[in-house]
Amino acid sequence: MMVLPAPAKLNLFLYITGRRDDGYHNLQTLFQFVDHGDSLSFATAPDGELTLSPPLPGVSPEQNLIIKAARLLQSKTGCTKGAHITLIKRLPMGGGLGGGSSDAATTLVALNRLWQLGLSTEQLARLGLTLGADVPVFIRGQAAFAEGVGDIFTPAHPPEPWYLVLHPDIEVATAAIFNDPDLPRNSPVLSLQQRLLLPWENDCEALVKKRHPEVAKLLGWLLEYAPSRMTGTGACIFASFDRREAAEEALAKAPEGVRGFVAKGCNTSPLFSALQQMNAASSSSNTAT
Ligand SMILES: C[C@](O)(CO)[C@H](O)COP(=O)(O)OP(=O)(O)OC[C@H]1O[C@@H](n2ccc(N)nc2=O)[C@H](O)[C@@H]1O
Ligand SMILES: Nc1ncnc2c1ncn2[C@@H]1O[C@H](COP(=O)(O)OP(=O)(O)OP(=O)(O)O)[C@@H](O)[C@H]1O
């Protein structure tokens, strides 16, 4: 059995620089991971069967990105093995934390190993992109400045502060934000160096605040404590702190009913770190035998 994390991502900034003919948007965004997320376990099933437990409320197994990722891998490689997959879901859905994409990325990486398919990171990232724009960054596992639809990467090394992430109790549909005529789509294309020096902002934030007053209200509250922004197309917002205790103190004072968590920013994804540990353990056991 293989147990692996599916961490959340934050978009430390997010600019929309244009709309392509296929309707997708070109972005400039800075991705970083946090050490908090879902957890998945995988056991090989011999007969090609794929199961997921427990099921996600409101998402049928066929729609679940975990099963979709596993099926995609089976169909692209002709692999006849299956898997029993268990999911511990901690990340809110439709939160802008990339939970579904991260689950899909962890599934692709895990099953590639478990089924001994030998696909490269590049091949897995390309497959992952067909499941969602955020999947490739989770497969690569390194903080990055991303362009295109979020699939052209430049490695980046932003500071790794503590974050307080808060979730207004709503789900924002990514497609609805990208399809809204009021979304600004004309940020200039700048270099990473230029972007790092300018204030970090999110082009979706004003629109999401307008459509969802809950987000505007919570962001107003959080800004009293620290510089704060929205991640992705929302609904989650985050603030950075130098000290974990300061983030936890702010969480303890959060308005009633607001859920959230404190986590450390990571330029290396917890998935990547877990895989490195697995590699180290297997090479030391090979040496021992
Ligand atoms: C906003 C971000 O989270 C930033 O990291 C991502 O770009 C969104 O990634 P995602 O949730 O994996 O999105 P997908 O499932 O691929 O796309 C959902 C919908 O959002 C719109 N979409 C998404 C990404 C993008 N670059 N341009 C778009 O216009 C499309 O209408 C698409 O049908
Ligand atoms: N394993 C999964 N986990 C979460 N959502 C899933 C999963 N599989 C399918 N979905 C569907 O995907 C939708 C988006 O979920 P997700 O948690 O990825 O949103 P998000 O955090 O806003 O992502 P992003 O930041 O990539 O836009 C959900 O509303 C759900 O219907």
From TrEMBL:
SUPFAM superfamilies: GHMP Kinase, C-terminal domain, Ribosomal protein S5 domain 2-like. InterPro entries: GHMP_kinase_C_dom (IPR013750), GHMP_kinase_C_sf (IPR036554), GHMP_kinase_N_dom (IPR006204), IspE (IPR004424), Ribosomal_Su5_D2-typ_SF (IPR020568), Ribsml_uS5_D2-typ_fold_subgr (IPR014721). Residues 64-141 form the GHMP kinase N-terminal domain. It holds the Pfam family GHMP_kinases_N. HAMAP family: IspE. Pathway: Isoprenoid biosynthesis; isopentenyl diphosphate biosynthesis via DXP pathway; isopentenyl diphosphate from 1-deoxy-D-xylulose 5-phosphate: step 3/6. The active site is at 9, 134. GO terms for biological process: isopentenyl diphosphate biosynthetic process, methylerythritol 4-phosphate pathway; terpenoid biosynthetic process. Keywords: ATP-binding, Isoprene biosynthesis, Kinase, Nucleotide-binding, Transferase. This is 4-diphosphocytidyl-2-C-methyl-D-erythritol kinase. ATP binds at residues 92-102. Residues 196-256 form the GHMP kinase C-terminal domain. One of its GO terms (molecular function) is 4-(cytidine 5'-diphospho)-2-C-methyl-D-erythritol kinase activity. Its EC number is 2.7.1.148. The keyword Nucleotide-binding applies. Transmembrane segments: none annotated. Catalyzes the phosphorylation of the position 2 hydroxy group of 4-diphosphocytidyl-2C-methyl-D-erythritol. Belongs to the GHMP kinase family. IspE subfamily.
